[in-house]
Design goal:
The chain is an alpha+beta fold. The protein contains 8 helices and 8 strands; from the N terminus they run αβββββββααααβααα. A 3-stranded antiparallel beta sheet has the order 3-2-5.
């Protein structure tokens, strides 16, 4: 009889030991007792699970990274691209994550793929390439709205890579080259315009001060003579050129006065 009690005690001790579950700090336990879920998730620490009455489902509260496979997306301007993304989310309500969805990882992956195609399909190619942050925020908002009833919180969505066809890459390169040429021509024209304005201002100053042209003439001679070259310069006085000009213009003025 004593042997029977010893066996019963050993079995009881083993049962109690097996009923002890230890949950880590980031884990919570959703417990089903006789098929009904308990009001609150248990953990962390020591949790007693009495099988077969109780059934435990472990849930992690850490942030999960889910990679969305490359999706063929047709943008609003009818350009076909391949886009993949990554989603960061976490479980905030373990009970809903167990009760409302069969497999929250698979469900989130499928929802992310369809949402990625629908959102990026409404954007143009230029918007997809230059305003990626805006699209990421919209994707995060939509996914967060749909997964809130599953007890999850989407913290970040990032579009990782946008793959274009070879023909489209060449077309974008030609467009960028044409844009650079346009900017270069505009800058060159603006430089010519500013130079013409400065020359006009210089001409106005020289017209008011006739001696300025003589000083500029002498400065030019100094610059030419400073270089090691074989150029021969014959300087002529400005007054001589002015006198010749007046003589040549003299008869015309007289004829104009006679008429």
């Amino acid at each position: 009889m004593s042997d029977v009690w010893i066996i019963v005690m050993v079995v009881l001790v083993l049962y109690l030991v097996s009923s002890i579950k230890i949950l880590r700090e980031y884990e919570r336990a959703v417990v089903f007792r006789l098929g009904r879920v308990l009001p609150q998730a248990k953990g962390p620490g020591i949790v007693l699970i009495f099988a077969p009455i109780d059934r435990l489902v472990r849930m992690s509260l850490r942030i999960e990274a889910l990679e969305v496979p490359a999706q063929d997306v047709v943008t609003r301007d009818n350009v076909t691209v391949k886009v993949n993304a990554v989603i960061f989310f976490r479980v905030i309500d373990p009970r809903l994550a167990v009760l409302e969805v069969s497999n929250y990882l698979y469900a989130t992956s499928q929802l992310a793929q369809t949402t990625l195609r629908s959102v990026l399909g409404e954007a143009e190619l230029d918007e997809l390439l230059s305003q990626r942050g805006k699209l990421n925020l919209r994707l995060q908002t939509l996914l967060d709205q749909h997964t809130a009833s599953w007890g999850m919180k989407v913290t970040l969505v990032e579009v990782k890579q946008v793959e274009l066809a070879e023909q489209m890459i060449r077309a974008i390169a030609r467009q960028a080259e044409a844009e650079r040429e346009r900017r270069a021509k505009v800058i060159h024209a603006e430089g010519e315009y500013l130079a013409a304005e400065k020359l006009a201002m210089a001409a106005a100053v020289i017209q008011q001060q006739p001696a300025a042209i003589q000083l500029r003439y002498l400065q030019t001679l100094v610059e030419i003579g400073a270089e090691h070259n074989t150029t021969i310069v014959f300087p002529l006085p400005i007054d001589l050129i002015t006198a010749v000009t007046q003589v040549l213009n003299g008869p015309k003025k007289i004829e104009a006065t006679a008429v």
